[in-house]
Amino acid sequence: MKPWMRWLAGSLLAAGLALATLAGLVLDLKPAVPERQDIALADAAHALALARQLDPRRAAPGQLTRVAVTERDIDLLLNHAAHRLLGVRVAVGLQSGQAGLQASLPWSWGPLGGWLNLRVQLQQTTGLPALAGWQLGRLPLPRAWARPALMAAAARVGTVPDLALVAEVVQQVQFAPAQMDLAYIWHSDTSARVLSVLTPPAEQERLRAYAERLAALTQRSPGWTVPLPALLGPLFDLARERSLHHDAAQENRAAVLTLALFVNGRSLASVVPAARGWPQPRPVRVLLAERDDFPQHFLVSAFLAMEGTTPLTNAIGLAKEVADANGGSGFSFTDLAANRAGLRFGQLALKQPALLQQRLASGVTEASLLPPVLDLPEFLQQTEFEAFYGQVGSPPYRRVLADIETRLDRLPLYR
Predict the structure, then answer these.
(1) Does residue 305 fall inside a structural domain?
(2) Residue 193 exposed, middle or buried by CB count within 10 Å (0-12, 13-18, 19+)
(3) Among 91, 88, 116, which Cα is nearest to 101's?
(4) Can you tell me the distance from the alpha carbon of 322 to that of 42, in angstroms, rounded to the nearest whole number?
(5) Are residues 220 and 357 in the same domain?
(6) Residue range 241-266: mean pLDDT, rounded
(7) Residues 41 and 322 sit within 8 Å (Cβ to Cβ)
(8) Which runs of E-coded beta strand occur in 143-273?
(9) Nearest to 221, CA basis, from 277, 283, 296
(10) Which of 44, 59, 294, 409 could bond to 316 as cystine, CB 3.0-4.6 Å?
């Protein structure tokens, strides 16, 4: 064998051994974070309450606010966000003066496969936490790599983190066993700056296209009530047109978000401040099966499904019905059916976006979106619900839920 051939063979062997060694260090056979299945309705209620409490639109500008957040709440919210944005499982552990975060991501490349398990350790300071160390599998990583890794993860989900904004708002983070104490200040422009980070220019352009189409549709509507298909069909026609040059799932998401905000009486300006200057839709009452609450349930559930179907998402979808049973309008299986229909619609819009656009192009009717459900029990107060069904998840409850799923299975749109 010629010298250069021996050198090439040796180099390839060394590279193969180095790659195998690296894979052995960073790849694990099992995930460090198990899949979450223990989400309860109380968790959803806590998550919603925490989101409302931290909403900058509700805060007094310039006022220092302190809030205690449980380890459970942080774990659920981070796990939901990581699953939705990156397909990663996350778990959080809090102790005195420090916090640990674990993330698990399935990974494969050629013959190599397994789980990438990331472990991050944060140390409490007088202000924001400091990175004490991090490792991938059994391989410790340099701290200097943390910021580029954060930027790369943010770029993958289409945003750029404003670290200066975080440092400006968050004054102090303290860790205690199973609890994090957060001190923060919202400023007068914080809400707009946060929303601009979360909604980059490309997404704003996309939402504007659907806002303009919705405004035109409502302006042309002759009356003050409009059936949901009369708006949903044209918006998805636009999504099909734009998908020739853009991502179909992102177009579907923008259509659903625009319509979900509208039927719930919210302006797009609540998520995109620039939308105040866009064409505005005329207020109309949107109906599905002659009900204005069904479009609200349907579209909110569809959007939640497109944001990522996790146990927390499902619990949030059920939390309102349980709250209604306890002093509200009452638990309604009809509303739950609209939720489940919207969930299926959102899953199809995300996972098979072009197929949904194609099916809707042939015509959208109320019967294609929601089966007959008005015979289902509704407006049940807590005592009535418990008398007939005991609790959520009981055999009688599951029978009604199975009936709803059977009705949805019959609709060609969701097959």
Answers:
(1) yes
(2) middle
(3) 91
(4) 10
(5) yes
(6) 95
(7) yes
(8) 170-176, 179-185, 225-227
(9) 283
(10) 44
What's residue 310's pLDDT? 54
- Considering the domain boundaries, does residue 211 fall inside one? yes
Q: Cβ contacts of residue 136 below 8 Å, gap of 6+?
A: 25, 26, 116, 117, 118
Shared domain for 346 and 395, answered yes or no, is: yes
Number of domains in the chain: 2
Burial of 4 (0-12, 13-18, 19+ CB in 10 A): exposed
Q: How many whole angstroms separate alpha carbon 176 and alpha carbon 179?
A: 5
Q: Kindly state whether residues 164 and 261 are assigned to the same domain.
A: no
Same domain as 206, residue 148: no
Residues 255 and 311 in one domain: yes
If asked whether residues 205 and 123 sit together in one domain, one would say no
Q: Give the dihedral of Cα atoms 295, 299, 302, 308; nearest 10 deg.
A: -140
Nearest to 368 by CA among 352, 351, 345: 345
Q: What are phi and psi of 68, to 5 degrees?
A: -100, 125
Contact 115, 31 (CB under 8 A): yes
- Encoded tokens for 86: 């990156």
Q: 397 pLDDT exceeds 60?
A: yes
Asked whether residue 249 falls in the same domain as residue 369, the answer is yes
Which position has the token pair 């407006």? Answer: 379
Q: Do residues 263 and 299 make contact, with C-beta atoms less than 8 angstroms apart?
A: yes
Is the pLDDT confidence value at 22 over 70? no
Token couple for 372: 């007959």
Q: pLDDT of 294-325, one tens digit each?
A: 999 999 889 888 876 555 555 555 555 445 44
**Whole-Å CA distances, 382 to 6, 183, 385, 392:** 80, 38, 5, 11
CA 232 to chain centre: 21
Domain holding 89, by residue range, is 28-187
* Residue 361 resides in a domain: yes
pLDDT band at 262; cut points 50, 70, 90? very high
- Alpha-carbon distances, residue 252 vs 57, 170, 206, 306, 397 (angstroms): 27, 34, 10, 9, 33
